[in-house]
Amino acid sequence: MKKVLFTVALILGLSQVNAQNYNNALGVVVDLGDGATLVGPQYKHSFDGKNAGNLQVMFGDNITVLGADYTYNQAFSGTNGLGWYVGVGPQLSFVDYGNDYHGDSDKTYFAIRPQVGLEYKIPSAPLALHFDWKPWWNLTNDSNFEAGRFSLGFKYVFN
After folding, report:
1. 49 φ, ψ to 5°?
2. pLDDT 10s digits, 98-109
C-alpha cells in the first residue's frame, strides 16, 4: 500500500497545470479483460484542459454498452504530450441472452466505472492514445465487481 501511495504522490508532484493541448477527440475504444471484449466509437471533450467528458458506445456479442465519464487530466512535467487521468462515470449495458437464459430474453445493467490511466497526444500529429484500468462495478441484477477490466483508445484530435 505504501508503494501505491508513493506512486500516486509522485505522479501528482510531477504534474503541471494544463493537461490537454486539445479540445475534442473522436476515435475508437476497446474495452477488454475479464468477460466480453467490447469495441465502439468514443468522443472526448476537454472543458478547460484539466476537466473532460467522455462518451462511448461499445458493442460485443449480444451486448451494447452506453457510457459517459468525467475525467480529471494532468500532464507529466517535462514531457511533450504524456499525461495521466482519473475519473468515474455511469454505464448502461443492454444484454440479449436469447430465450435460453433462465427464460429472460434480455436485461439492462447499471454500472459505475472508475478509471485511472495514461494518455499520449502525439505532438506532430492529430492523434492521441490512451490506456487505463477501468473496473466494472455492476450495481443491478446480482451486483458484482470486475477488477480486471481495461480500455485502449485511439483518437483523432481536433479543436
Report:
1. 95, -30
2. 765 555 678 899
